[in-house]
Design brief:
The chain is built from 11 helices and 2 strands. With 240 residues, it is mostly helical.
Length: 240
């Protein structure tokens, strides 16, 4: 299999219209023995371009200048998109308005793009299949990493919510305890001050206060205990 086009420039244009994944496979097959160790990195390039290509995603083939800047920043590339274009023009790649994956790979690895576009794929089917297999493995690993990261983030968020609930429960418990104890102290003071009638009235109210079931306080204690259990559980799961 070869690229359509009477000139190398047209062949590069044809390659650049392929999807990100197809461009990566073509590149890997063309330079397999030189980039085998970088297969995982090349898939990261594919994955990031797909993420940044909101309109087309996996069916896309090139990024506009804004998204290309973000792509370069992801991999700490110090060269700007403009500098990359100038670099590509210096080796004869003229059509650089957008940034296909192929253009970036030519720039990134410094390989001869004429060799790239004239690399036959059919004669190296075994290597093509190997490149595809490696890409699939790396893609599956990325999916697993993303799933793990998402689950970890969810556990951390749940732990944070549980801690906030615990804080609120502790504040409510303190407020109810303060209210209970303040009323008790006030009635004790009144039972020892003033006339006989007022003291007896205060003593009766104090006895009633001590004997009654303080529902708000009891509820606050129950909520606080439940919040502690939830926070402990969430913290343990977040450490997994």
């Amino acid at each position: 299999m070869s690229l359509a086009g009477a000139t190398d420039e047209l062949k590069l244009q044809a390659l650049s219209t392929k999807t990100y994944k197809e461009q990566a496979i073509w590149f890997l097959n063309a330079f397999w023995h030189r980039v085998e160790k970088d297969a995982e990195l090349i898939w990261k390039y594919v994955h990031r371009m797909v993420e940044l290509d909101a309109p087309k995603g996996a069916n896309g083939n090139e990024l506009d200048e804004m998204m290309a800047h973000r792509f370069l920043e992801t991999f700490d590339e110090t060269m700007t998109v403009r500098q990359m274009r100038e670099n590509l023009r210096s080796v004869g790649v003229e059509r650089v308005r957008f940034v296909p994956l192929s253009h970036f790979l030519i720039f990134r690895f410094g390989f001869d793009w004429h060799t790239l576009v004239n690399a036959t794929q059919g004669d190296n089917q075994a290597e093509v299949e190997e490149a595809q297999r490696r890409l699939n493995e790396v893609q599956a690993a990325f999916v697993q990493v993303q799933a793990t990261a998402k689950a970890s983030a969810e556990r951390e968020a749940e732990a944070k919510r549980a801690q906030e609930e615990l804080t609120a429960a502790l504040l409510e418990l303190k407020a109810q305890e303060d209210a209970y104890n303040n009323k008790k102290a006030d009635l004790e003071r009144k039972s020892e001050e003033g006339g006989v009638v007022s003291r007896n009235k205060a003593k009766a109210e104090l006895a009633q206060h001590l004997a009654e079931d303080p529902l708000p306080l009891r509820r606050a204690k129950i909520n606080q205990e439940a919040a502690v259990r939830k926070a402990d559980k969430a913290a343990a799961e977040a450490e997994l």
